[in-house]
Queue: 4 jobs
Job 1
Amino acid sequence: MKIEPDRFLRDLHALREFGASGVGKGVIRPAYSDADIAARKWLAGRMEEAGLRVHFDPVGNLFGLADGPSILLGSHSDSQPEGGWLDGALGVIAGLEVARAAQEAGGPSISVVSFQDEEGRFGVTTGSAIWSGQIDLQTADALEDDKGNSFAEARSQMAELAGDFVDPAQFKGYVELHIEQGPALDSSGEQIGVVSDIVGIRDMRITFNGQQNHAGTTPMHLRQDAFQALSAFNAAIADRFANVVTPSTVWTIGHVALHPNASSIVPGRAVFSMQWRDSDPQRLARMEQIIRATAAEIADQMGLSVDFGTLLGLEPEAMDPTLQAALEAGAEAVSPGKWRIMPSGALHDATNVARLMPVAMLFVPSINGISHAFSEDTKEADLVAGLEVLARATAFM
Ligand code: GLV
Ligand code: MN
Ligand code: MN
């Protein structure tokens, strides 16, 4: 099998044109946006040209299938609302190049996938979560994005392309190449990270309901200000987590929506996402207790009420030792002495796919550790090194 780095880089740049942000190499290609659907149709064409059988499933996961039992390579091609050009795209295009080279060489049998909504417009890694049975389709259909659009409406935009769900029994294993999205490889000067395990995650919407009122006439001590509750909550959980977390535990407040969000109105409602990640399920559970208790306590003290949305999450997942060893051998051949074994703090479709088959992952460096931002980038030599490790490793699978 002979991979062609130039062809791989050309395809990677071509995918970047779909939803190009005009700021650096960034992209705006959230799941089911026009740019995302156009990119998936383009990818389907490239898969077909490579000799693969194109198949969209009911949620827009796109497969390029090779005959017989095959190794599945890939990642996702949707992006964050402000995303980088490599997050997900790298694994899909590298998978395409290895599958194409394998078709040209007459083997091995390699299929490709681009999962839908990995970035969680609707849930957490939605497309692969549904395919793997982590979440059922009916439950997923009721999920809403932050504008109130349902997953059912969004996926109906791809209905004319949709076939059945793909039978996972035809795959011997799944391997995902991704950018690291953190600073470890870039700061150590190493070229490849072979992933040992992926952290677990919890994500929950929280709402503080106060009393909307006039900002000039309402005395401070009589306010039920939803923003003040959120602000107090944020400070309090940092304190209360202190004895529970490790240096690798992370938590993030996002999607903050203040109602009505005006300078002369005491806010009556604050809705936000609370997300936390760790490699220990017991610590994730302890953090959940702290979050619920702290929010309830603050609401009580300040005369508000609090509502908790559905708790979404994925468990921590270890990589398959045999596939991981194949990646380690590939890394040592391509970048001798310049690779390491490391955990993933970012989530990946591989976590869900591990319910169906053995999985493994590898990383290439992110310049300055930046990702989920338009400025995300990786040196071309590192992108190609990742492709080479992936191609070599498939020979041992
Ligand atoms: C996926 O991009 C994540 O949020 O880790
Ligand atoms: Mn990703
Ligand atoms: Mn991402």
Note: The longest strand covers residues 200-209.
Job 2
Amino acid sequence: MVDKKTIDPAVKEMMEKAKADGIITAFDRAESTKACPIGHVGSCCKNCHMGPCRLVGKTTVGVCGATIDTVAARNLARAIAAGAASHSDHGRGMAFTLLAAANGEAPDYKIKDANKLMRVAEYLEVPTKDRSNEEIAADVARAALADFGSLKGEVSYVKRAPEKRKELWSKLGVTPRGVDREVVETMHRTHVGNDQDAEHIMMHAARTSLGDGWGGSMLSTDISDILFGTPSPVASRSNFGVLAEDEVNVVVHGHEPTLSELIVVAANSPDVLDYAKSKGAKGINIVGICCTANEVLMRQGVPLLGNFLSQELAIATGVIEAMVVDIQCIMQGIVDAAETTHTKIITTSPKAKITGATHIEFHEDKALETAKLILKTAIDNYPNRKNVQIPDYTDRIIAGFSHEYIAYMQGGVYRESFRPLNDAISSGRIRGAAGVVGCNNPRITHDDPHLEVVKELIKNDVLVVTTGCNAIACAKQGLLTPEVMEYAGAGLREVCEAIGIPPVLHMGSCVDNSRILTVLAQCVNEGGLGEDISDLPVAGFAPEWMSEKALSIGCYFVTSGVRTWMGGTSPIEGSEMLTKLVGEDWNNVFGATWHFEPDWQKTVEEALAHIDAKRKALNLEEYVPGKYAKSNTYFPADYTSDEEFAKYSRTRAK
Ligand code: NFS
């Protein structure tokens, strides 16, 4: 059990209200449902009906003879395959939407970023000369769809990786061919009586995860940019205070921007607004939860209500007319929570229904019409509010740092490059960079390791890029604004002030972790920091992970060359061999290792030592803390303590 359930004051306030209203949340269920100690460490095999075999105590092999190492590797590989499938099936959906838009079958969608379309066409080898955007887009969509079950030797985007990394993957036989093929092969290999060598199983898990990162997820990000625009910095707000007392509140929750973008459009149409006013509301307030929130924040500035663990508590406010969900990270518990209030849970994806929810299926050919119907349902519900309470906490944020914008901000349209960033790293102004990403987990104090890891990194001059629920945690506690320089080390602060960026860059949703891969490849290709991603002084973190998608991300970070730490307990703790394989031996295979470590402080210490070792190997200038300080007046003595943090945090009552 965790000592504290959350550090977010708004979430705390809602927990009290939920308790009073009889709403049971994931926080409560995590307390009453003990994790199965055998499955939790990867030692339970249920891949056939001779079992499940629980490999514990004197039982060291399953009925078929499978060892604990084989069982743990099969479980991990299957989880990675499920994560890769989720990201990539989302990506496939985006490709189908682009195809429909290009063919005129989805009239409410347009090609918003023609420049990006041209760049993607080049990657996918689609001819562009003397062709209309629609013709190009249709071929781009077809090429993307073909990539999923590719007949070729490799997914198209592998070409975006540094030469050395591509050669390594090819030598190891892990270059992903197509994510469908890798996922299917994982399921095949892990069926009873098939691949029974842990190391061999994990090599294929690596290939599957690479199919996600450099295939499905990267395509998803690129196609979303073509359809809805490539993000650039946008200001917005976050936390429960974004809910409006006198407007119809609609929460978009899930992952695909296809629906949420259209809901934003519909909410601004005069007929819908007039209808809302006819019911006594002043307007319509769209806010987001989970990664769909990051998608519409980055492109439309839609405020963030909260991350994964806020979904049930949001309902407890009593002011949400509709929670509109599509796919992934949606707790079934929201339906029960909604029973106590007037909130309508509306499922929309043909792939995901929830018993007890209202299903209004969303199809691209009638996108705006469906979005309006959903909003009308929410508006009709506005007069039904009963017991309302909005926690009065909010903070300002700046989000929207796509890899394109990061290149642009370092030199403008004509001179965009990664040179200033690479130079800042070489000189030791910036010690290194880290991607901090991933979920919440009620078995870990909500948002606590997320924030501590980020604060400690920037204090130590490590530039942070963030996505997913970490990005939302940072947003809620004031870490996504330039003012957060107060927490940053002197060198990092100087660089960020010169470029005009915060030291924590919001890069989007979880599929947008592919943007981080692109940035890493661009840093290598810029020159001066080695020849491979594994040469860079960088690290990856998922401090509060829980989902299979997070395992796929962790695995592709590592197999792309980024040493990575996942918080909480280890899903492979049952196998010493497997723990050593990914945590030590993979350094000689992929040039990076993968760690599961509950002590966040230890993860940061190890990461800083790792960053320094990489700097040394590259013969970069020695990093000296405070070397670039103009004065130390802006260094709070110990701003990682709760008191100091409270002083500097701008999470406050409105
Ligand atoms: Ni990603 Fe985790 Fe979900 Fe987003 Fe949040 S829980 S793996 S961060 S919302 S996908």
Note: The first helix runs from residue 9 to 21.
Job 3
Amino acid sequence: MNTALEAQPATAAVLDHDVIIIGAGMSGMYQLLRLRQLGLRVLVLEAGSGVGGTWYWNRYPGARFDSESYSYGYSFSAELLQEWNWSEHFAPQAETLRYIDFVADKFDLRRDIQFHSRVVSAHYDDATRRWTTTLENGERHTSRLLITAIGPLSAPTLPRIEGVGSFAGAAYHTARWPHEKVDFTGKRVAVIGTGSTGVQTIQEVAKTAAQLTVFQRNPNWCAPLHNGPIDAAAQAEIKANYPAMFARCRETFACFLHTPDPRGTFEVSPAEREAFFEKLYAERGFGIWQGNFRDILTDRAANAEITEFVARKIRERVRDPAVAEKLIPKNHGFGTRRVPLETRYYEVYNHPNVLLVDINETPIERITETGIKTTDRAYDFDIIIYATGFDAITGSFDRIDIRGSDGQRLKDTWSAGPQTFMGVLVEGFPNMFMLMGPHTALGNIPRSIEYNVDWVTDIVAYMQTHGLTRADARPEAVQAWTSHVKAVGTGLLSNEISSWFTGVNSNVEGKQTRIIARYSGSAPAYRAWCDDVAARGYQEIALA
Ligand code: NAP
């Protein structure tokens, strides 16, 4: 098929493909589908043996949604929405992966996905206006466009502790969990890390392990998930209401079903405030974080109120007051880091076979052949689980040698923090489009993915119809967007604390300083900006 993205006289070159997409997670899959509809020759390169990205890799025990299943699935196909039945309000990982496999089959996506293909480099050549993408095994592919669908949380990191690798038992990072079931029965298990992943893992492993020891550096503010099965009546209601539900997600700040209460924390009486917090604590999902008083994430005094409320809940739920105090964060307020949702997480610490080790008091000295040695004592284990997170947002880009015009390296361009245009383009890296890149609105990720993909598809179609083969963000547009991202992040309490939200990872060289890593304005505001750029004919992008 002849498309305008193919070789033109001025840029004569034979291309293997019109578009290479890196990654067959939810963004890469949907992008493949949309570009196929334009008649383009697309190849998706995927490191894993199957589709699903996050849901393919993160098979750790207890992994499940934190956003309501029905608000998380793809919304683009009414038929798909009616065909698929979610079994629980927050589906477990295995069900989500089944869903993603179902989507891949339904839309016959696998024929354009090459598995076991880890990309190690992608280089742009200005003379031919093409990208050359190279795999770990040396295989090369040329294309006009390069689309990164590599996810903001896909580069797992192990702690920089002496002896990692010397442990003779089984050791797993949660994001590289084996495909076979791991049995904890009768085992002495260690978990390092108490983020969203650690919390889900701990509450599951505690059910069967003989002994569970949790090594905690910073506790997080967790809130109850309140999961439950979806019965037939609820299923019918969900299916009848999909259009209205997705319309609602489009309007909320971060595309979740929950929307902030318009009232300020101190505009109500203390009794009303307490009753509202109680109501939110008893409700499903992220309501207590995303549907709370409008000022809890920006006003210190307001934040202190909800923080104190949740601290009280922890004290009520954990029997040993000393353990409860260790589980209560002291260095940040509720909601200023990602809130892990939990199911009887705090009660785990009431079990006689569970031990919480605060590694601020007794730091880990090294991993040994038999377990973990702290300044206090040596612990022996059969299994060590690293729930130590990711080199987030830019880490997945850093792991690929991406070079733009004149051979400039993306890693160098971003050495002081990412600079992008709408999180989609980087000046000097023509024809590279990022899905869920730095400085995009994340939130309820599939909702953001669908918007991101549709926007990229539109500009690709525009290039096609106008015979254009080069798209590069203009420097002033990048500057304006980067300043805007900084401006909307000002005053947010979450930007004053180290976490993956602020690009900090103690395990990665050079990532100890906070940066503005993500767009922290509202999703509707993000979309309005992007829509406006498209409506005005992409003036901020140099098209040729
Ligand atoms: P994370 O939030 O970055 O948590 C990593 C944990 O490991 C933290 O407790 C961290 O402690 C600890 N840690 C890291 N390095 C350490 C070291 N050297 N020594 C001791 N402790 C160390 O990562 P995550 O839990 O994997 O979650 C990342 C994100 O993935 C979440 O915020 C969420 O957005 C997403 N996620 C979503 C779901 C869901 O939707 N269901 C589930 C899981 C994850 P410090 O806090 O002290 O750094």
Note: The longest strand covers residues 140-148.
Job 4
Amino acid sequence: MLVLGIESSCDETGAAVVDASGRVLADVVQSQVSLHAPYGGVIPELASRDHLKNAGPVVREALARANVSWDALSGIAVTNRPGLVGALLVGVQAAKGLAWSRGLPLVGVDHLVGHLLAVFLRRSEEGAPPPSFPFVALLASGGHTAIYRVDGPRAADVRELGATRDDAAGEAFDKVAKLLGLGYPGGPVVDRMAQKGNPAAVSFTLPMGHTRSFDMSFSGIKTQVAARVREHGVPANEQELADLCASFQSAVTSVLAKKLVTAAAQEGVSTVVIGGGVAANRELRRRVTELATERGMRAVLPELASCTDNAAMIAYAGLVRLRAGERDGWDLVATSATSLPRTTRKGRGVR
Ligand code: KG4
Ligand code: ZN
């Protein structure tokens, strides 16, 4: 079974072909980073226009690289939520047009479910075997940060255990990088700078870092960095800048890793998984592996290319739906809301 996936929820236009074992036959990502970089963040209108330009070419390129014809496909999967509605709309319309003209079934995919299942993708022969259900997953990207119990591959099988109450973790990386004049997107550059820095150089406090709830908060640490920059300026010295990055990264990743592993222990689940752009962070990967091992759990980490936005994860999540006999109609809509159930803040509370 081969499925074509299309992704356009934010600033990457992607098309990919995967098979039922999660093998990635082709994964084409046309990044818009340089388009948005001068503004320090994604400009929705520019994103939509660029998706429009790139959607056709990335689909053609994915099929060519996978060396498959339209006849070999079992269906088309497209991200239809959550994201920038204008950006999503381009992918959804492209997928509808292709599905209609090629007589293929169409399924919409929740981008967050795609991130949660990215760990099942196989890009090479190496790599750890995929996890089995249930697992507890940390999803940390530019728009979302939450911990979920995942009992199966579909949105209905996912339960939120905790989530950020303000900024997403990736957003904190991006804002701190911007404050330090390191450019956009901030995650990869802070990760790189932090390699040379001392994580104990600056002490940051994370609100909710020590509460027993699995909720999180990342806006306060950004304010702490802003206050330092206001008082002392951006460190002119390369080593001090690296120390600041390492200290910030250490504070954020320690909370993420600790809450993930504690949540799994509380759920009586012995496998932890991470996903989303921040899952590419080296320090987070190291800490999650270390903490999970200490607690006798298995940590399964997606390959780096599967962490940041890509269409392969969308193709795979769509394949799961298609395999179960599910189809969407021509009334499939693009929406900014996730389909994942959210525990109400009030209901969960702080224990
Ligand atoms: O999943 P993703 O590609 O897009 C969204 O769905 O948001 O995540 C992008 C986010 C950005 O905030 C980016 O700075 C962050 O992931 N990111 C990282 C790293 N690579 C990307 N954050 C920390 N360390 C990294 N190595
Ligand atoms: Zn994403």
Note: The radius of gyration is 20 Å.
